[in-house]
Design brief:
With 119 residues, the protein is an alpha+beta fold. The chain has one domain (3-105): PH-domain like (Roll). 24% of the residues lie in helices and 34% in strands. It has helices spanning 35-48, 84-97, and strands spanning 3-8, 14-19, 25-29, 53-58, 64-70, 73-78, 102-105. It has a seven-stranded mixed beta sheet. Strand 4 (53-58) and strand 5 (64-70) form a beta hairpin. The protein is globular, with a radius of gyration of 16 Å.
């Protein structure tokens, strides 16, 4: 099962990525000004996944990618894939596991593992 990972860009805006169970990023969202907007978009995506349209493209250097469109609004873009088969596997992974994916929030500047005082 994959996971949504919320993080903060250097610019201060928030984004989420969906990472596969193997840790590969499949999609990256648009930017959000507030963290809770990011969480709301994830929840909405989980509920409305059946209505998502996947628009497939081929870049100038021959790589394949897709854009996710929901309610006539682009919500995320995929990573680049070397073949159409791998692109389809990425889409299939999303369709199969987005609804049950957990949300991990790495957007705060707090240390994930607190420092240990060895003195």
């Amino acid at each position: 099962m994959g996971a949504f990972v919320i993080s903060q860009r250097v610019s201060g805006l928030y984004k989420f990525e969906y990472a596969s169970r193997r840790g590969k990023t499949i999609i990256t969202s648009n930017d959000f000004e507030l963290r809770f907007e990011c969480e709301e978009q994830i929840d909405y995506l989980k509920q409305a996944m059946a209505r998502v349209v996947f628009m497939k493209f081929k870049s100038g250097n021959g790589k394949f990618f897709f854009r996710m469109v929901l309610d006539k609004k682009e919500i995320a873009i995929s990573r680049k894939y070397s073949t159409q088969l791998l692109l389809q596997k990425g889409i299939d992974e999303l369709l199969r596991s987005v609804a049950i994916a957990e949300i991990l929030d790495f957007s705060s500047n707090e240390a994930i593992f607190p420092e240990i005082n060895w003195e």
